[in-house]
Design goal:
There is one protein chain. The chain is mainly alpha-helical and 71 residues long. The chain has helices spanning 4-7, 11-20, 46-69.
């Protein structure tokens, strides 16, 4: 497993934010979840970018499964 600092590159900023909400926010880790940020220069809202990206990944995963099943 990579060092924690590579898993959370914004540790200092993140910790600062959490510290400012001490007692109101609880931060835990879960193996199947992660935080990420989305920036756009095309005017699309981040929600739409993530939605479209998940559609593309899903489609490519299905295509990959079909190809693998032929092996």
């Amino acid at each position: 497993r990579p060092p924690r600092s590579t898993l959370f590159p914004y540790t200092t900023l993140f910790r600062s934010a959490v510290d400012s909400f001490k007692g109101k926010v609880s931060v835990t880790t879960e193996e199947d979840k992660f935080l990420f940020s989305v920036e756009s220069v095309c005017g699309l809202p981040p929600e739409k970018i993530v939605e479209k990206a998940s559609e593309v990944i899903s489609s490519k995963s299905e295509e990959f499964k079909k190809l693998v099943s032929k092996i």
